[in-house]
Amino acid sequence: MCSLPVPQEPLRRVAVTGGTHGNEMSGVCLVQQWLRDPGELQRASFAAVPVLANPAATAACRRYVDCDLNRVFTSTFLTARAHPDDPYEVTRARELNQLLGPKASGRAFDFVLDLHNTTANMGTCLLVKTTHDIFALHMCHHLQVALCPQSAERALQNPELPFLVSVDQHPGEETYDMTSVAKNGIGLELGPQPQGVLRADLLTRMRALVAKVLDFIQLFNQGTAFPAFEMEAYRIVRSVDFPRTEAGDLAGTVHPQLQDRDFEPLRPGAPIFQMFSGEDVLYEGESTVYPIFINEAAYYEKGIAFFQTEKLTLSVPALPALAPTPSPGP
Amino acid sequence: MCSLPVPQEPLRRVAVTGGTHGNEMSGVCLVQQWLRDPGELQRASFAAVPVLANPAATAACRRYVDCDLNRVFTSTFLTARAHPDDPYEVTRARELNQLLGPKASGRAFDFVLDLHNTTANMGTCLLVKTTHDIFALHMCHHLQVALCPQSAERALQNPELPFLVSVDQHPGEETYDMTSVAKNGIGLELGPQPQGVLRADLLTRMRALVAKVLDFIQLFNQGTAFPAFEMEAYRIVRSVDFPRTEAGDLAGTVHPQLQDRDFEPLRPGAPIFQMFSGEDVLYEGESTVYPIFINEAAYYEKGIAFFQTEKLTLSVPALPALAPTPSPGP
């Protein structure tokens, strides 16, 4: 496995972004609260910056105004000449690229933690862009151990345990999400929570997760070494659309036996959709997969009823301690 | 109690409306399915007409485009001269008034059943405009008995039992909702379901409820008499807003001990909100109330965290059989 390089210096420039999707309320309200009172985001070696990523969509309580902000952080959009007819989110991505990037430059922020909710029954989910990102994997493992100390080694047996999902991109494909403007980052995805609703239980859970992410960065910055470990992860392999009529309308929906079963095994022959006409549609794949983002509201328009993932066991090498910073000369 | 007059003739003109709010997917998808294949809506004495109430909001998967359609069926809006700058929903309300009304006229439809979802944990809820509407109360009781034959007399003890909620208006206040264009109507409110999500379980439940409503009208039309009964009902008495900052942003959210407890008793001194700063806000009323629509997404912008209701026991008089229709002369 070809690992990405790990940071060689303390992470000083860290941001926590919420409202990348304006109707995902846990991150929206936490960031609004931290903009009023940022004390919670301070650590000894750095202070994370709260950023409300999509203020217009947040004000309208919609995922986006013109297009999905979390898909437009590509060099094509970020470097094109600005035009008055640009979608709001493209303009906003350029602003965020100025604030937290520029993407792929030495001046970019060290880390962005991006806060999301899903209507799917995903529990606590940590999204990384690749299973080769040793630093991010250690952070996720730290969250698992910190939140579920008894069960971190037993992975799925504890429903409170955060799941790790890798959104591996195709070779050569450019990253496009909010965190990609920074040198590194992960997404937190908590559910189920309806769009436009703020549940106290998810807010509390997200707040605790953010604190643990910052604690991990603090530990790393102060020279902690982290030993090797094994962990389970889920890699997205493909998406599956709803059954539709010729006109493109829904012709059925997620089967009751699949609904709310994110991360559970889906075996060949099991029902996945229930047609309005009454019949069941069965999963015809050849191998067991692990569906996630089952019946996520925002994905209807993207033609996605759920994602199929494969389950992996990752052997993650140790994360060495930072070399001590040379003390200033006499 | 001053009862509304009951129908003296069979109900021939019946409509089932979905998509009054374009992101409440159970009604949207059922109506779309019935527009393709209306067989399910036929009974011996009538055929109900499926109506997609807000096509533009449905296409955008939003509650509304310009304003809440379910609030604009007032004579002010319906009779004002049309203007190109009218909100989309005002124009659409006039169209629906032509199709299903005119409101308060002899030509109006006999009955409109309006289909809704809520993000709140409301289970199955039947909304009537007044506890004086004998016909609607008999229909609701019929649904309770048909869906829960063992428990209809035991009201709250069965969680599957539909709750009856009365949105009593103030004396002299004009009705404004979708069903008000017809001579009579009720709303079905099923939850919890996120906006923009179609759950198979709620779809199946709503479909069964619609069938039972049509069955009741068929029974009434064919001369069935319905005996008197007692039933529990919840009358909305006031709304309660979220705690907010001076700027109007949320300063806290529904307390975990209140979340999902729709229709359960809320006693003085119990927590209702959890502030972001950590403190609890307690219910300071003097009597037990029964909160509903707790943390409904669409009500944030209306300044409503939940409604307080009072619990009533209604004594509903018998619904007499229709007088036999004179047979055609020789």
Summarize the structure.
Chains A, B: Zn(2+) binds at residues 21, 24, 116. Chain A has 330 residues and is of the alpha/beta class. Chain A has helices spanning 25-36, 55-60, 75-79, 88-100, 134-147, 200-221; strands at residues 14-18, 49-52, 111-117, 123-128, 163-166, 185-191, 229-240, 252-254, 271-275, 280-282, 290-292, 306-316.
Question: What would you note in describing this structure?
Answer:
Chains A, B: It comes from Pteropus alecto. Two copies of one chain form a homodimer. Chain A has a domain at 14-233: Zn peptidases (Aminopeptidase). With 330 residues, the first copy, chain A, is α/β, with parallel strands linked by helices. Chain A is built from six helices and twelve strands. In chain A, 22% of the residues lie in helices and 21% in strands. A nine-stranded mixed sheet of chain A has the order 2-1-3-6-4-5-7-12-11. Chain A has a three-stranded antiparallel sheet with strand order 8-9-10, with no helix packed on it. At the A-B interface, α1 and α6 of A face α1 and α6 of B.
